[in-house]
Amino acid sequence: MASATVAVAFVLALPYEARAHARVHPTETRSGDLFGAACRIRVDGSHVTAYCHNPYPATDHVSLHVECVRWWDLDSDGSPVAAGPAQTVELTGRCWKEVRSAWISHRRAA
User: Fold this and answer.
1) This protein's superkingdom (predicted)?
2) How far is 2 from 6, CA to CA, in rounded Å?
């Protein structure tokens, strides 16, 4: 019982800044088509790697956004990368020190 309590306390004590979150919710267009690549984000120290897979027929332009903990460490917004139908793309970013958060934005191809 004590080890379970310690394990739960450890998970709850993880700093929020170290957690990556992906804002990936497929959206439905007016015509009923689903849209939006599914993305996985991994934060490893000061490096961020995201893999986005687009299972839908419409191209999704995905961008990685990284927010850094330190005030002097510049946040970054990556350039859009086209994730075509059935395609997986890799996006990378980093901070000089710690990463506060990382997320993906989605945009329909014009």
Assistant:
1) Bacteria
2) 6
- On whether the CB atoms of residues 80 and 37 are closer than 8 A, the answer is no
DSSP assigned state of 49: E
Domains and CATH numbers, the chain: 35-109 (2.60.40)
Percent of the chain at pLDDT exceeding 90: 65
Helix (H, G, I), strand (E, B) or coil at 85: coil
Here the tokens at position 91 are 């996006």
Q: Dihedrals φ, ψ of 13, to 5°?
A: -85, -5
Quote the pTM value: 0.71
* Helix, strand, coil share (%) of the chain residues, nearest 5: 15, 45, 40
